[in-house]
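ingest -> validate -> predict -> emit
validate: passed (alphabet ok, no gaps, 200 aa)
predict: started
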Amino acid sequence: MKFLLLFLFFVVPVSVQAQNVPMFLAGIKLGADVSTVNRDCNLSTDIPLADERHLNEINLVPEFVPGIKSGTVAYANCAQKGAIVRIKLKFDNSSRSFFDDLLNRYTKKMGKPEKWRGNPFQTVISWKWSFKNDIGQRINLELTHSNDEDYKIGNFAKLTLRSLWEAEAACYQQTLGPSEEGASTPTPTDKLDYRQLIPN
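emit:
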């Protein structure tokens, strides 16, 4: 009997946690081939990302799911070409009350978020969850509400297969030549013409 109680105490929470690791958002699955969502994408918008050269991004068809105004899917273009790495959605309801409702539903399903990502003025309110599934993949989920015009206005969700993101970044880095590896290094301050950087 004691053995059974110990088994339930240690094993059941782990299995419940594993069941709550999110891999789908709006019917799109992380790690799946991007061709599985072709019918929901505007294929002409497919481009490599300027700041994440190991990813391509493609726009989702507006309102392809009721309640979703727009979104993007980012997929790998190096080691695991075509694998979906990230899903970003903007909801058509931009209100704070809708965000609070979503946050409550997310928390009930996946537990309390572990990290605050907003700003002190709460013009951006953002919460982050981090997960690890039973095959060792790491997944990040963020839910955001913004009233900051310099950010974006509205409610957003982002689901990322972080372990694949990192693997693809490493793969892309290996393809760079010596001259390209330092391409993102900041310009030394003694080489700057501050007259070009300061409004006048």
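Residues 2-19 form the longest helix (18 residues).
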